[in-house]
Amino acid sequence: MPYIKFHSFAVFIHCPLHPSFLPPREAEKPFVLEASLLESPARMALPNQQQVDYPSFKLVIVGDGGTGKTTFVKRHLTGEFEKKYEPTIGVEVHPLDFTTNCGKIRFYCWDTAGQEKFGGLRDGYYIHGQCAIIMFDVTARLTYKNVPTWHRDLCRVCENIPIVLCGNKVDVKNRQVKAKQVTFHRKKNLQYYEISAKSNYNFEKPFLYLARKLAGDPNLHFVEAVALRPPEVQIDMATQQQHEAELAQAANQPLPDDDDDAFD
């Protein structure tokens, strides 16, 4: 039976892949899950939160206050209904489920609940993080200039985890951070997506990228639509195509020596 091997553990599940994707029979070996991993904080729910019997991962979301992190997470209706608050750390944890071609996967999304406005986040927020999203606001330059600081703090505690950089609020007309000015992800080999939390534009892409990285399977895909809140704003197709064209053009531009150069 095919299996997905995750960074922390592997799970045997039914996976209706085409036979050409399956490993040869002689290569299949039983995977023994270490008992310690069953109780590992890496499978990070809060004590009063339901554990699940399918792969789950702690996803930390960081970025300046007001960039839309909470709005983004709350678009996922199931996660909003089942969220839990941990007052000792000052976070809300939203369990976000996705159904893939290889079974269900859950991200326990740790949202700072505004704590970053009062200074840096405690290490307890980052500890045992298995993947991350760094968010900035394309209408506020300072939030992008602070991305390197968030990345440094994150990597100081969580080494070698998949990270997605998200530029939020691309639905807003007075954009201050252009696609060609976003270069940090290219320097640090991060994935970058432009999103609009209020319109649900590109909502699933960060999660799909992280799921593929955690599974080590570039062919993994979502097979069910996620229950999202109705969009508050609309981004028409022409605008979406313009975003994609600008990103493609930016990817071919030479990198500046310093990110600040991009705003000169």
CATH secondary-structure class: Alpha Beta
Question: What structural class do you assign from the helix and strand content?
Answer: alpha/beta
**Gross morphology:** globular
CATH topology: Rossmann fold
CATH-assigned homologous superfamily: P-loop containing nucleotide triphosphate hydrolases
The tally of beta strands, per DSSP, is: 9
Can you tag this structure with a few keywords?
alpha/beta; Rossmann fold; nucleus; Small_GTPase
Description of the molecule:
With 264 residues, the chain is an alpha/beta fold. A 7-stranded mixed β-sheet has the order 4-5-6-3-7-8-9, with helices on both faces. A two-stranded antiparallel ribbon has the order 1-2. A hairpin with a 4-residue loop joins strand 1 (3-5) and strand 2. The longest helix is centred in the C-terminal third of the chain and has 15 residues, at 237-251. The protein has one domain (3-263): P-loop containing nucleotide triphosphate hydrolases (Rossmann fold, 3-Layer(aba) Sandwich), CATH 3.40.50.300. Helix content is 25%, strand content 20%.
Provide a concise account of the structure shown.
This protein has 264 residues and is α/β, with parallel strands linked by helices. It is built from nine helices and nine strands.
